[in-house]
Amino acid sequence: MNSPSEQLPVDPLKSTEFTPSAATLIVILAGCLFSGLLLWFLFQDILQGKYRQTTINPAACPSNVVSTRTQPEVPTSPLERIRLATNQSQSKQHLNRIALAVHNYHSTFGVLPPGRTETESGTPYHGWQTSILPHIDQYELYDQINFDRPWNDPQNYKVFQQQVPEYLNPAIQEKVAPDGTALSHYVGNSLLLKKNQSMPFESISDGRDYTILAVERGNNFHTWGDPASLADPQQIIGPDQISAFPDGTQALMSSGAVRFLSRDIDPAILKALSTPDSNDSTGDF
Question: Which residues form the signal peptide (predicted)?
């Protein structure tokens, strides 16, 4: 124990009093002022939308279309290849479910569902994917729809916010449109599923095995209830188009079979597969 007369060593850090110089104070104040101004300008830019991250250009596409996806790359690792194969298999199963639903619809009504319904004045009402809901066990969802009102009427809005698993490709991340409605990653063949028309299978003179019914889409997705969820396969398949998978797209034939179509498919063959009654040759397809 130290005696009262002994002095303990003094800690220089505790005993040193820091007195900032005028120059130091000026530097600190200048730094605070600069930081404040920077935050103020940044805040103004955010308000003006300069730093708002958007993936949709409202002027370029309707409010229920998602068109931000780019061409998927060929997988390089074993894990990526396994994931690709799994996603393709699951998407094929969804196409098989859609095929079964369309065939059940045909068995019930004797015709295919109309591709889209419109009024005489051209107001779009409902699409083919809505028509087949009861045949993919979506009875409750179907019963919630007011068919006397267009699909995008406020009375139907909550219905079309609900996702339908069979209409989603697991390889595609986008599942919700900017307007909050649920997307579909599949489109019907507009040359077969026509506006306000219901064709029987028997009218497919080119053969059901050689006529596309529906196809995976790589971008420009629509809400599943949107009557615009149709496309000419020739317009969405090809080397200049974004495909669902790196090398191509899976197509559902009218027979119920699912075939893989390369991005480099011969345009003449693709035309023959897209048209139901052109009598074009499909070659070795």
Answer: none
